[in-house]
Amino acid sequence: QTVPEELQNGGGFGYVVAFRPLGTVSWMQTVVASPDAARYVFRNESLPPFSPYEVKVGVYNNKGEGSFSPVTVVYSAEEEPTRAPTTVLARSISASDVEVSWAPPWENQHKGRIQGYEVRCWRHDEKEENAKRIRTVGNQTSTKVSNLRGNALYHLAVRAYNTAGTGPSSAAVNVTTKKPRMPWRGPATAPLCQTSPCQACQAQPFYFIFFVRFFPVLYRWNRESSTSVIETNKTSVELSLPFDEDYIIEIKPFSDGGDGSSSEQIRIPKISNAYARGSGSSTSSACTLSALSTIMISLTARSSL
Fold first, then answer.
1. How far apart are the C-alpha atoms of 143 and 121, rounded to whole Å?
2. In which element (H, E) is residue 141 found?
3. 135 pLDDT band (50/70/90 cuts)?
4. Structural domain boundaries in the chain
5. Strand 301-303 and strand 206-208: pairing?
6. Peptide bond preceding 197 in cis form (omega within 30 of 0)
7. Lowest-confidence pick of 37-51, 56-70, 131-145, 278-292
8. Residue 40: CB partners within 8 Å, gap ≥ 6?
9. Class of domain 192-268
10. CA angle at residue 63 from 9 to 32, to 5 degrees?
């Protein structure tokens, strides 16, 4: 920073720039005669990139030299990284997110610090030059790429960068995002038939996008008690329940993309005689009970594809 005129204390004011390679003894000096000068460029074609120098700046006028500033370390210009990151790995964590990790380049050539990494991500049917770019800062060696398309093949590559530019790219790795979250509607539950065995019970179909892995069936004694879960990959399940309690049942599909929406809650009142029916979004005639503690729940589903 330049010295204000009121502090120059006389004519012929200027600056003395002293510098030396870090670790050496002798100072090189040059005079900058303008009081308004705020920079000096030292040029040396044999200077290695990113070389550290100790620098101090003093002042003078017609009466003599003043004091020097404290010594600081500056670096010559750096070159972009010359090695690519290694061990690039990618995994899908959802239908829209991918996590990518890598290791720093093997060789530290001291031509410049690595200020961070640039991750490029492009879909298989896209051009690489149109890739999404995410930059990390510092020593971070993993990041998340978001807002991707579900169930799609992506290519990812990583390269280091600094103030001089970006280095060479790693080899691209492939990853396929998970299937999207499944249904936008919960399953339509069929009538609850309190019988064993039970005759076929018709249900309204529900629609989903991809393969349903299984259906968690959630039930509890009443609205306040804890919830129990049974998982099935079929469209029916038998529950053996005490017949002197009220029950609330929900069903929802699950896939690689996560849980779908739950069905409407179905309340099963206490079973006190040989005829009963569940109450919910769809009902039918009650089935004759042969085992009061067994309840059959059935539903149907069909793909929209």
1. 12
2. none
3. very high
4. 5-75, 86-177, 192-268
5. parallel
6. yes
7. 278-292
8. 15, 17, 30, 32
9. mainly beta
10. 80
The single residue listed with the structure tokens 């972009």 is: 80
Whether the CB-CB separation of 254 and 178 falls below 8 Å is answered with no
What is the DSSP secondary-structure string of 260-287?
-PPPPPEEE----SS----BSSS--PPP
Q: Tell me, what's the pLDDT at 281?
A: 40
Task: Of 275, 274, 278, give the one whose Cα is nearest residue 248.
Answer: 278
CA distances from 166 to 51, 138, 141 (A): 19, 14, 16
Instruction: Count the alpha carbons within 13 Å of 219 in the hemisphere toward its beta carbon.
Output: 21
Q: What are phi and psi of 260, to 5 degrees?
A: -90, -170
The pLDDT tens digits for 178-209 are: 988 654 444 444 444 444 433 333 333 333 33
Q: Which CATH superfamily is domain 5-75 in?
A: Immunoglobulins (2.60.40.10)
Model pTM? 0.53
Could you tell me which residues come within 8 angstroms of residue 161 by beta carbon, excluding any fewer than 6 positions away?
Answer: 80, 81, 114, 115, 116, 117, 118, 135, 167
Q: Is the dihedral of CA 245, 250, 256, 258 positive or negative?
A: negative
The bridge status of strand 153-162 relative to strand 165-166 is antiparallel
Q: Which two tokens stand for residue 233?
A: 């990959």
User: Is the domain 86-177 a CATH 2.60.40.10 member?
Assistant: yes
Domains 5-75 and 86-177 share a fold: yes
Task: Tell me how crowded residue 90 is: count the other CB atoms within 10 A of its CB.
Answer: 22
- Distance, CA of 52 to CA of 128 (rounded, Å): 38
Token pair of 103, please?
Answer: 């290791």
